[in-house]
């Protein structure tokens, strides 16, 4: 279990955004979780460099996976690692700020594994939420690249 002090450090470092889907914590009904980048079940530690702020949805979909399938090449690729990689090098937002687009094999595999745009489930709840967030100026995050 991660202490509140460590969680605060992780949240501040992440600018209170999920480090995978970049949803802001303040507009979610659930407090964000702390994700183990290398899952504890695979030997990952509670050290700060192995922890990421994560919305519950991304955390549940990531589970203990460290790889995903790039839908473009059908090859297994490592999932995005927020401690060693920059979000903006692997992902961009669609022009309307609603969809996350993976621009590298890692980005595409992460979008696919975590279903970052709610497309596999067909509910599109996330896209509807993002449209609302865009309309009130809460999304996408200021420094994120847009198509």
From TrEMBL:
Residues 5-60 form the HNH nuclease domain. GO terms for molecular function: endonuclease activity; nucleic acid binding; zinc ion binding. The keyword DNA damage does not apply. Keywords: Endonuclease, Hydrolase, Nuclease. InterPro entries: HNH (IPR002711), HNH_nuc (IPR003615), NA-targeting_endonuclease (IPR052892). SMART domains: HNHc. It comes from the Bacteria. This is HNH endonuclease. It comes from Dulcicalothrix desertica PCC 7102. The lineage of its organism: Bacteria, Bacillati, Cyanobacteriota, Cyanophyceae, Nostocales.
């Amino acid at each position: 279990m991660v202490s509140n002090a460590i969680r605060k450090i992780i949240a501040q470092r992440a600018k209170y955004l999920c480090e995978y889907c970049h949803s802001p914590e303040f507009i979610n009904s659930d407090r964000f979780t702390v994700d183990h980048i290398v899952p504890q079940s695979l030997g990952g530690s509670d050290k700060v460099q192995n922890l990421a702020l994560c919305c519950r949805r991304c955390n549940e979909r990531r589970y203990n996976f460290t790889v995903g399938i790039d839908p473009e090449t059908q090859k297994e690729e490592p999932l995005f690692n927020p401690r060693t990689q920059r979000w903006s090098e692997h992902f961009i937002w669609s022009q309307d700020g609603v969809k996350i687009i993976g621009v590298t094999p890692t980005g595409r595999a992460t979008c696919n594994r975590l279903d970052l745009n709610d497309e596999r489930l067909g509910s599109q709840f996330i896209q509807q939420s993002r449209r609302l967030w865009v309309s009130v100026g809460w999304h996408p995050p200021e420094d994120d690249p847009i198509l």
